């Protein structure tokens, strides 16, 4: 709306919004995720009153993100848009009692925020200078409806595997949904998620857009999210809220054929390890190793009656640092998907070379097990001259997850 579209026959204001502090705070908590920091309108929240007296808050972080959040519980007079400096408004709201009712009035570019304690005055910038995201959204075509928690679960599973080095291979700085799989890789490790809901659409999410999208999806758990797109942007809508992401110009990394089939791999060796004991062992060894040394070795000869061990080179001695890891073999009657990998491996004919010792970057292993439960199902195998660690999991939402970490040669 332009300034000319505002009504002017209401006394000392052209627009008025009355809302409780808690309702405003709830809307701002979502809108502030895409609030810009430049000295222009993108550092402001844009309040919009439509012709049905519904109020929304618009925000934008150029050039990547856009948000439109309904201000539920509000009443409004007039029609149009005005802006309020984002940081100042957030600071003001955080220092208002929860029981307060707030009143915004706008007149000729001046916005007043009134409470029982007093009144603040803000300058409104010209709303017509706000980026044209709503025009883009009007042209978007619906692609997919998907349960918010399913998309959140998948994106959260792969987030630690996205490269954040845009100067090296920028096409790896995103998570992708393509050919029925959701995946991310930094070329040293990869996570692949498989669920039937990913089979009929494509999506790319840059790592910088992750916090806003994950919060949007988490906020709307229990609801379907509608994905729409134009040639320039993706749009997610749920419960009247809208989140826009600019598309990245980079073609998604194509998963090699053998990795795409990794859900069917049966590793040569499999260990079921206690997660906390594994993490403590890794951190314990790291305390005695060189601060820039992340290479660790797992050793456990086939048929050995002892527990597997982790080792690292010491920064203070010629002797390696060694620690044993607690195994957590499950009860067979309590088997679920990840444990099946262990028992399948027992059926493999013992003709392959024993995987008795292999080296890996422990930072990647820690990232891979971050979202796992109390047990870590860790497989190890050799494909030709290369060796891989393989972790598998199945979530309560029937999503299959496999993480692949290359051996260090």
Which helices and strands, and how do they pair?
Blueprint: E1 15-20, H1 21-31, E2 44-49, E3 55-61, E4 65-70, E5 75-78, E6 80-85, H2 86-94, E7 101-107, E8 110-114, E9 119-123, H3 133-138, E10 141-147, H4 148-158, E11 174-178, E12 181-185, E13 189-194, E14 203-206, H5 210-219, E15 224-229, E16 233-238, E17 241-246, H6 257-260, E18 269-274, H7 275-288, E19 295-299, E20 309-312, E21 321-324, H8 337-346, E22 357-361, H9 362-369, E23 375-383, E24 386-394, E25 400-406
Antiparallel strand pairs: 1-5, 1-7, 2-3, 2-6, 3-4, 4-17, 7-8, 8-9, 10-15, 11-12, 11-14, 12-13, 13-25, 15-16, 16-17, 18-23, 19-20, 19-22, 20-21, 23-24, 24-25
Care to describe what's here?
By secondary structure, the chain is an alpha+beta fold. It has helices spanning 21-31, 86-94, 133-138, 148-158, 210-219, 257-260, 275-288, 337-346, 362-369, and strands at residues 15-20, 44-49, 55-61, 65-70, 75-78, 80-85, 101-107, 110-114, 119-123, 141-147, 174-178, 181-185, 189-194, 203-206, 224-229, 233-238, 241-246, 269-274, 295-299, 309-312, 321-324, 357-361, 375-383, 386-394, 400-406. An 8-stranded antiparallel sheet has the order 6-2-3-4-17-16-15-10. An 8-stranded antiparallel sheet has the order 14-11-12-13-25-24-23-18, with helices on both faces. A hairpin with a 3-residue loop joins β3 and β4 (65-70). α4 runs antiparallel to α5. It is elongated and about 85 Å long. Mean pLDDT is 90; it is low at 1-9.
